[in-house]
Amino acid sequence: MKKGLKTIELTLAGMFVAMMCIGANITSIVPFMVVGGVPITLQTFFAILSGAILGSRLGAITMAVYAFVGLAGAPVFAKFGGGLSHILSPTFGFIISYIFTAYVTGKLIEMKKSLPVYITAALIGMIINYGFGTNWMYFAYKLWASAPDGFTYKLAWTWMIVPLPKDIILAVFAGLMANRLEHKVLARSQFRKIQRTA
Questions:
Q1: What is the pTM of this model?
Q2: Residue 57: what pLDDT?
Q3: Fewer CB within 10 A of the terminal residue: the chain, N end or C end?
Q4: Would you say residue 36 lies in a domain?
Q5: Which of 123, 139, 112, 102 is nearest to 19 (CA)?
Q6: DSSP structural state of residue 77
Q7: Residue 138 to residue 53: CA distance in whole angstroms
Q8: Which residues of the chain have pLDDT under 50?
Q9: How far apart are the C-alpha atoms of 40 and 115, rounded to whole Å?
Q10: Is residue 61 part of a domain?
């Protein structure tokens, strides 16, 4: 049984935590990545990619670390936010969902590393992100947050239509990218050797 993470695994996990922070605040760094007033964030993309590249276990651990770092106060969430108060945010469910997104994406790919599986796993990961995050948002508004006038379950899902095309495209791209990296680089890497002997 694996007792701890190796240096290379810790390094890759740290890289993905950093990329999640960048993905959450990409419009602050690159202002033109706002289309029709909607910011094009990359968190879902990196969450899917972490599972596809790091695997189910390390990918989920990495996303959990990202969440805990943010809750500890580091400005890694959207709008460079951080702190325990984010637990009460209606959108905090999306942050939790990244853990499950990475895990399920990685687990499906571990079964068979073919291009169709990579793309399918990435899309399923995106569905988990949307499903968990949107339902959390709905119940948050209904139970403890101040809901907008006329807020309904249907309206919560209507809000998600705007970023949906972007996330579908990025999910497919994540699958394509991870598949190519696997067969061109990762399959023969020290990182995969460590995973196979774990």
A1: 0.91
A2: 95
A3: N
A4: yes
A5: 102
A6: B
A7: 31
A8: 1, 36-37
A9: 26
A10: yes
